[in-house]
Amino acid sequence: MSSLLSNSYFLIPVFGLCVFIFSYLMSDKILGFLYKRSLGSRKEVIEIMDKMMITTDKKRTTLAMLLISFGLGVIVFLLCWPNIYAGIFFGCGITIFGWSVPKIVMVYLWEKRCSRLVDQMVDGLTIMGNGIKSGLGVAQTLDRVVDNMGGPIAQEFQLILNKMQLGMTLEDALTEFGERVKRQDVQMLVTAINILKETGGNLGETFETIVSTIRDRQKIEKKIEAMTAQGIMQGIIMTCIPFVLLGVFMIIDPGYVKPLFSSFIGWIALAMVVILQIIGGVMIKKIITIKV
User: Fold this and answer.
1) pLDDT surpasses 70 at 131
2) Residue 158 lies in a domain
3) For 21, which of 90, 119, 154, 188 is 20 to 30 Å away at the CA?
């Protein structure tokens, strides 16, 4: 039995057969996963760019994502030549990671933009509240915010005004704004305006209440960020250490780590390391992420 397990001519066909059976049984989920990570990821990137009001070209976006993923993967494979196994391993890893990078970056930029918009709502709602108290309508106060402020809030409010000029009602334009920027503070603003437009009420006092709520929420979020900063850094360091050590050993003593890339057991060990590191990183992320 031990001789069979040490014989690569036996292990490789058995491993290939297991992979084939697993792929056949899980073909629908695998194809769905690959679509989501490739064309589906491109679609999400384009949608986020549209939300951020960035002029997009689908062909150029697709070409850029292909260059970042497959282009870098081919370059890494050629750099690892003649070590084919290492080239395949690192090339595939860079290709998969490179295809996910644009989505990760765009999601980060979108979340940062939304956070900036919520921060601006404090000053924006103060301007709107003063305008309401002076007798202006909601649309006129939105126009005042556009004239006196910049950044994402001015763009979003200008988009609302443009839709109203094209015939859309204020309620529908605000509803689309809430669906586009899915933040609790934005939802609270949209709901308050739409309800008070129908039932009547003091919008000025409502805006003051929303501003006070946003400020209290921001204080709690800043405190949580300070308390979890150490955990975030520990998670990053713990996730990167194995790969950094592997790179150091490959530079100092390539023969020491060569069995990882030249034997079947080494490939299994590398796959287990990557899987366990990903699981550990996800778990640490979930532990230190606290939603307010």
Assistant:
1) yes
2) yes
3) 90
Q: What is the pTM of this model?
A: 0.68
In a domain, 29, yes or no: no
Measured CA to CA, the distance from residue 73 to residue 85 in angstroms comes to 13
User: How far apart are the C-alpha atoms of 100 and 65, rounded to whole Å?
Assistant: 9
Number of Cβ within 10 Å of residue 72's Cβ equals 17
Q: Is residue 60 part of a domain?
A: no
b/e map 124-139, b = 16+ CB within 10 Å: bbebbbebbeeeeebe
Does any domain span residue 21?
no
Supply the pLDDT for residue 253.
80
Q: What is the pLDDT of residues 88-112, one digit of tens each?
A: 777 777 777 777 788 888 888 888 8
Q: The tokens of 230 are what?
A: 């150490």
CATH number for the domain spanning 156: value is: 1.20.81
Residues spanned by the domain of 207: 115-212
- Name the phi and psi angles at 214, rounded to 5: -65, -40
